[in-house]
């Protein structure tokens, strides 16, 4: 489904998420589930950090010559009998895809997991045109039948638990016996398989994303753990690859280097279960494969990001490690971020794609703990890029007034030491007197954000600088 | 006896002159951390002074106000330029000064060179004692079971991890019980904790649970901001865990009132 933007209400979204016991139960598993596995995979590979450097360099090189590689890619896709379509924005991409579907009189479209599809709101659009989209990744299928959006870029239904899935299956799969046993995850999986198998066979068009696009060969690369991507792209009349510009890499060798850091960073696997390379439509000698092969290359603001500081964000290979390690994501989950991309990568990307006016809350809602940057396989300095957005927000006077005012008063004093030091001495003397009996405050004027949940310590007394100088003076006079 | 290894301590013909950047939080709220830091530095053989100072500029920098951050960086650099080293009892402020000052002078070659010169001299207190001064143990006593929280900037920007544990191991009477997720953020994040109090509270809530589960009676860390956040949460929840800056314990000054605890009259 297409996504209404609620990023400006991040605080409200977060408050809701924090109250949602079921969600909190699901989120409690994110850290333990991913962090240890990635750490073990990284530790098992002595050259892992060197590979990350090389992954960063491959992406940097590609971005520096993106125009050349795009041309090369297009040429190679054409040679293999496929088509490349450039989409400037979401509407453009939707129109290109619907045109292909209509030309083929498509009634149903199977889909592999694609965040770009979410970004352009493809499913709603297809439905409006009378074409039925069927998500075939289990997580995507679950959120589709719940009319929800993904809450994680590689685990879209991570916010759900088994009980909810069972209830949804009973609600939607009404042709199956009501007394069937769905208590085991395997039975849920088997039921989803059965449902989807039919859909694969009747689909007219298959749409997938791509993890990489290889310029050297005109190949799209897709990794999945379920194999649904393969059925989506080989069975129907046409395979449409929907991908954004920055998925390009120069060579097969580059793609395999990036694959080595991708799954390890994402799930701690050495490789995902399925890694599929697709080049062009079925050839006469092939036993199967789609009759048509299209690549829709989405820009949607990315070429603008190429110039300037945000370019580094275009290295992202969508592994999800940054959100898996993010304390804020662990606390509020993906939906609270209010658009397609959550977590640290979303906090950088979202303002570039929907505008800083709507997206500014995201880069602000970070503690800058730096753990995302520490694990990012392509070494994107995520805190630095979030700070970039805070600067843009500040420059454009979009910072909320109380915060802006507070900052102004503070900087007035902090940049005037001669005023700052006596002022802090006075303030601390007063506060320490007030808090003397308890040693702390459970409420303080102007500090409600703090004292709503925490006590605030009373200052010890005079400032350190004043005490230091007094001691120095007295030791000097003693010496004299 | 406080002891040292390696050439670090003997390499200086005269005692290194250290400018103590006390940090605005220590300056205003908990001066005893500043005195503990000065004591440790002096024990390590440094000559310590505290030039007039305000703030390193991080709140402005992280709020997107580069102009103020640059002004404060300039002010700090000028105040500390004459010292051999600039040491702060905070990974966060030291990280700001060491890893971010230079970028504030982008496009100003002279300012940039001056900043880079300054950055090279900046250290977080405990890592300075161990890595630069070669300290391997301290002379201090503290009766208790402590757990240590790795504050984010110190850990990730300055690689402060083993140094405090090395020195804590030499404190008589102290046992260190590691908590789960010691290297996960406490939810302070500077202005983050007041801009997004609900999220911050959820994060510090988990941290408090881990502290309590460690069985420690004392929580230590190297950053007063994080310490106040965790102390405030533990106290609000009614826990009796003493929260202190690691420097207080290392300097043998862990007998005063803990953070947020009243002085005994
Ligand atoms: S920003 Fe880095 S860690 Fe996050 S999804 Fe992208 S590649 Fe992975």
General description of the model:
The complex is a heterodimer of chains A (480) and B (265). Chain A has 480 residues and is of the alpha/beta class. Chain A folds into 2 domains: 1-92 and 207-399, no CATH class; 401-479, no CATH class. Chain A has helices at residues 10-19, 21-27, 30-43, 48-64, 66-79, 90-103, 115-119, 122-128, 138-145, 162-172, 185-202, 228-234, 252-266, 302-306, 321-324, 327-332, 343-354, 356-359, 361-364, 371-375, 382-395, 401-414, 417-434, 448-451, 464-479; strands at residues 83-87, 108-111, 132-135, 205-208, 212-214, 219-224, 238-244, 248-249, 274-278, 292-298, 440-441, 456-457. Chain A has a 6-stranded parallel β-sheet, sandwiched between helices. In chain A, strands 8-5-6-9 form a 4-stranded mixed β-sheet. In chain A, strands 11-12 form a two-stranded antiparallel sheet. The mean pLDDT of chain A is 94. Chain B is of the alpha/beta class and 265 residues long. Chain B has 2 domains: 3-130, Rossmann fold; 137-250, Rossmann fold. Chain B contains 14 helices and 10 strands. Mean pLDDT of chain B is 95; it is low at 6-10. At the A-B interface, helix 1, helix 16, helix 20, helix 21 and helix 22 of A face helix 1, helix 2, helix 3, helix 4 and helix 9 of B. Residues 316-322, 345, 376-378, 380 of chain A line the site of iron/sulfur cluster (SF4).
